[in-house]
Design brief:
mainly alpha, 2% strand, elongated, disordered C terminus
């Protein structure tokens, strides 16, 4: 009586030289894996330059168009020139956030396989919190400017004080200090991995300390963050792509 092959067993085949082959048939390549691996273009480092320039322009326009003291009267809202400058600065914020997200991607690509979970978690968290709070501050300020642009609908002094305090707190107390944490952890990662020049690392540590403790002294201190990002992006463009360690290689700690 002839036995049928059991389910799950393959019928033996014949190789080209006549020997039986009992292994599974060769599998065709996965079409999802057939393409070449993605590579971050070198031009992506330009995102850091775009972010720095746009943020500097937005902050300068906002600072020269609004009074430093939130409790001062909102007479600046009745000036078409100042109100236009504030509107332009607030409209730049979405592009600032987009360019900053690209910049984060450039830094992660620069780190490569030397990523450490702890530092990368703080790196990503502080960067995303900075963008989120920058967007919220711009939305509050944009709502105030939009309300003031309607004829005969100038916000009351209490509303103006509340909106200005919310915007100032979000920007100076939270967003800029998250930028300080981002700068500090980026400089720390760079010091451990050697992905950027040493002078960028030193200036980053100094800028982070000044942003953490000095932002309440002068609002112009916040320009240190985009200035440092600009220097870092230029350093990445000048030095070019760094060599990646081979897959599975173990990099020395410390």
């Amino acid at each position: 009586m002839t036995k049928r092959p059991m389910a799950g067993h393959l019928r033996p085949g014949l190789a080209s030289d006549g020997r039986p082959v009992t292994g599974p048939p060769p599998m065709s390549p996965d079409p999802l894996q057939a393409g070449s691996p993605l590579r971050t273009p070198r031009a992506a480092a330009v995102a850091g330059i775009i972010f720095a320039v746009l943020l500097i322009v937005a902050l300068v326009l906002f600072r020269i168009s609004t009074p430093a003291d939130p409790s001062r009267a909102g007479t600046w809202l009745t000036s078409p020139g100042r109100r236009t400058a504030v509107t332009v600065s607030l409209n730049l914020v979405p592009f600032v956030g987009i360019a900053f997200l690209w910049f984060i991607g450039v830094i992660r690509d620069r780190i490569g396989q030397q990523e450490d979970r702890f530092f990368v978690t703080v790196f990503l968290g502080s960067g995303l919190l900075f963008v989120g709070m920058l967007f919220v501050a711009a939305a509050v300020g944009g709502g105030l400017a939009a309300a003031a642009s309607s004829p005969g609908h100038l916000p009351s002094s209490n509303t103006l004080l509340l909106d200005r305090n919310i915007t100032s707190t979000l920007l100076n107390v939270y967003a800029i200090r998250m930028a300080a944490v981002f700068t500090l952890v980026t400089a720390t990662i760079a010091r451990r991995t050697g992905i950027i020049s040493r002078w960028i690392i030193v200036t980053g540590l100094v800028a982070a300390v000044v942003l953490l403790i000095g932002v309440g002294i002068s609002p112009w201190v916040e320009l240190l963050f985009p200035a440092w990002v600009l220097a870092l992006s230029l350093d990445i463009l000048v030095t070019g792509p760094r060599e990646r360690p081979p897959a599975g290689a173990i990099t020395p700690a410390g």
